[in-house]
Design brief:
- This protein has 386 residues and is an alpha/beta fold.
- The chain has two domains: 198 residues, TIM Barrel (Alpha-Beta Barrel), CATH 3.20.20.10; 128 residues, Lyase, Ornithine Decarboxylase, Chain A, domain 1, CATH 2.40.37.
- It contains twelve helices and 20 strands.
- Strands 1, 11, 14, 15, 16, 17, 18, 19 and 20 form a nine-stranded mixed sheet that branches. Strands 5, 6, 7, 8 and 9 form a five-stranded parallel sheet that branches. Strands 4-3-2-10 form a four-stranded parallel sheet.
- Strand 3, helix 5 and strand 4 form a beta-alpha-beta unit.
- Helix 2 packs across helix 4.
- It is elongated and about 80 Å long.
Length: 386
């Protein structure tokens, strides 16, 4: 008993310690983004895509806000993500497919199950019969993504055959665009046309769906027709957080919801000729006031920022010196000569009149905001501003 009590006290102490690196999530801006997106897609409803722990922001606080701001349902990638959201009271759809061992818990807990082909539909139906439950389902159509679902050109017969399976309710049918980040893209227009043709073929046989969706964040910006009838639902992930694919033409005014902050761990003056970091990637040309910040690539700072990126200290842009380490990053403090250990460092966000964005990082890394958000480390504390 004594040992258990000591361990519990140690855990309390650990959990109460201030984190070195904090990801601040502005929930007010998040709610405003949801309202703006809902206005954009109306009269279609909004599915909030919260896979990968809400893109790394922390799924439950985010889910509560988007639910209260009017999202109609949630979309996730796999069963554990779905089960975490079921208690919030909105339908939860798995976007993609179920693995064989995931069918039973999905049926048991009322997850909206994807039907990628007749074989999967038959397995889900059999499990629903075994459990004496009715399962809400979403038919998955491949209109040109080439990843999952029934090819749209010859899917009708297989989908119509599913109507004969017991204990299945067909809530929705959906597809996904592969190229919608490109504006005026003929391939995307072809996907929309192919999907609409399938819907018409099914309707002619008396099979319709309450929810029909193909638009995700890219399409709802670049292809507004993807949110109009026959489409009744639009999915949205990255736009919820105020970010876009770099090639998208934004159709909404959204606010970035995150800032990444840390502290100065050390301040020193190093002599001319000193080399900085692994591989001696930077060599000082003159005596320089150098700071070491308490964040590295384990916290989400891309290695691509080495010798190229910036952080903000005392409202000033301070360049990264040398290679970023796992836990620390070295910067020049020539622009912030008054900086001292413990001072706030803004890695992403605003300080004074200066700003560093996720898109700045993404451009240096040759990627997009999705990658940056999902790479923020697990030891970074998520802080929610209400």
């Amino acid at each position: 008993m004594v040992q258990t009590g000591a361990a519990e006290r140690a855990m309390v102490v650990k959990m109460n310690q201030e984190s070195r690196v904090n990801l601040e999530v502005d929930l007010r801006k998040l709610a405003e983004n949801v309202h703006e997106i809902r206005r954009r897609v109306a009269p279609a409803k909004l599915m909030a895509v919260l896979k990968a722990n809400a893109y790394g922001l922390g799924v439950l606080p985010v889910a509560e806000v988007v639910r209260d701001a009017g999202a109609a349902c949630f979309g996730v990638a796999e069963i554990n993500e779905a089960l975490e959201l079921i208690p919030l009271g909105l339908p939860v759809q798995i976007l993609g497919n179920l693995l064989p061992n995931e069918i039973a818990p999905a049926v048991e807990h009322g997850v909206v199950c994807p039907l990628n082909d007749f074989g999967m539909a038959r397995k889900i139906s059999a499990e629903a019969v075994r459990q004496n439950r009715t399962v809400h389902c979403a038919v998955t159509v491949d209109s040109g993504m080439g990843r999952l679902g029934m090819p749209a050109a010859n899917a009708a017969r297989e989908i119509l055959a599913m109507r004969g399976l017991p204990n299945l309710v067909f809530d929705s049918i959906y597809s996904h665009c592969s190229n919608a980040f490109l504006r005026h893209d003929d391939y995307t227009l072809g996907q929309l046309a192919l999907f609409k043709a399938l819907l018409a073929e099914l309707a002619a046989e008396g099979m319709t769906f309450p929810d029909v969706h193909i638009a995700a964040s890219d399409a709802l910006n670049n292809f507004p027709e993807s949110t109009k009838l026959p489409f009744t639902l639009a999915r949205c992930g990255i736009n919820l957080y105020g970010y876009y694919d770099p090639e998208v033409h934004p159709s909404m005014r959204l606010s970035p919801v995150v800032e990444l902050k840390t502290k100065l761990a050390a301040v020193r003056t190093l002599a001319a000729g000193s080399s900085i970091g692994y591989g001696r990637m930077h060599r000082l040309l003159r005596d320089t006031r150098v700071g070491t910040i308490a964040a590295g690539y384990a916290d989400g700072l891309p290695l691509a920022l080495s010798n190229r990126g910036y952080v903000l200290v005392n409202g000033q842009l301070c360049p990264v010196l040398g290679r970023i380490s796992m836990d620390y990053t070295t910067i020049s403090l020539e622009n912030a000569p008054e900086a001292q250990p413990g001072d706030e460092v803004v890695c992403v966000g605003t300080q004074g009149g200066q700003r560093i964005t996720l898109d700045d990082w993404a451009q240096l890394k040759g990627t997009h905001a999705y990658d940056i958000l999902c790479s923020i480390g697990t030891r970074v504390r998520r802080c929610y501003l209400r």
